[in-house]
User: Fold this.
Amino acid sequence: MAEKEPHRKESEQKPENYLFMKETIKRKPLDVRFYLKRVLAVTVCGVLFGCSAAGAFTLVYSIASDKFIEKEDISLSGAKPGPVSIGATEPVTPAAEPTSAGEDQNSAAEETETEFNDLQEQETVSVTAAPMEIYESVYQDALRIAEKPMKAMVRVSGLSDDSDLLDDSFLTYGDEEGVVFLNNETDLYILTNYKKLEDAEIIRVTFCNGAAADGVLCKSDPRTGMAVVRVPMTLLTKENLDEIYVASLSDSYSLNNEKPVVAIGSPSGDFGSVIYGLITSVSGKITAADCEYSLLGTNIMGSTGSSGVLLNMEGEVVGIIVRTQSDENILKAVSIAQLRPLIESLSNGEPLRYLGIRGSSISSAQAVNMEIPQGIYVNSVETDSPAMVAGVQSGDIITGLNEKEITDMQSYMTELQKLTVGTRAKITVCRRGADGKFAEIGYDLTIEEK
Assistant:
């Protein structure tokens, strides 16, 4: 019996006898085919689901359109058309079968199209005519404002005693515009320009209704060219007097830019014309010896022969149109509020007081900014005038007249006209010395008549 091999101890086992134990465990490789099958299956399911949804939507939309959209079209067919742009595309009407109902529908469509075209033409005419309608409306308002004051406008003619040998008529020096501003129950008083009446022996006044009467010159002012003519009411019939309007003279000084005005008389050079516009300037001045008046500039085009008055929206006279050397085609007027004291003196035939000073008003703001006294800055003194004889010089600032404070030309004119011709009065001036400071000086002078 053969002997068994002796059992080897584990410690005696050699590693080279178990080489298979060194093998490494690897990850399972990716199965590409498996994932391709999954993606393909999902794609096929999505396509089938989409097709089913599209089919269902088509079926539902077909049923809904038959039941609801046709009803909506029928309900809208009787509605009024909304605003349509002129440049919009014309609506397309589906062709109908030649049945009686189709003919009625075509006829209705043609009538609708005709009405639409008519509406387009009306809208075009309306848009085009709107500015003209506004212009006409504004001009109608101007005519309404000027209706009564136009009855106060007159023509004042300067005539000669000598007659024309050809037709035995009076020789005419010229015509001026005038406005009736006062009725004192015995006479009508007319404010007019004096330039063409200066050499006249006869003053003939022609009123709005054609009635004519001879007038009497109350007084004229050679500085401003203004004059007042009086017409006795006994020279006119009651019927004529009833047709003559007496214009109101505004006493307001608050005239600003962009205030609307209406020019009547002969603003365009033709008698009886009416033009409206705006005041564009109130800073202009018209100056002469011992007077200064505000000049109102407008945007109204006139002519070299323009004359008449400016009215405010209440129909009151706010300015007398004057002729200036510059901008002859633009209407300018003297403020009537500043002329009121002068008009009163002319109406009463009072003499015009004269000192011979040409000056400019110094406002309170100018006085503060320039550190000078407030009053009248003397621009010049006329030769041999009472002011020059007394010692008043250019550059002086007048602050007082006959113990009355003078702050501007308006207060100066008012106080001067209160004095009596031939009497003595004291004028107070401030004069700058060599040290730059002002010293107050008083002069005595004699009031003369212009």
The mean pLDDT is 78. The two ends are 183 Å apart (CA to CA). Residues 70 and 118 are 30 Å apart (CA to CA). DSSP finds seven helices and 20 strands in the chain.
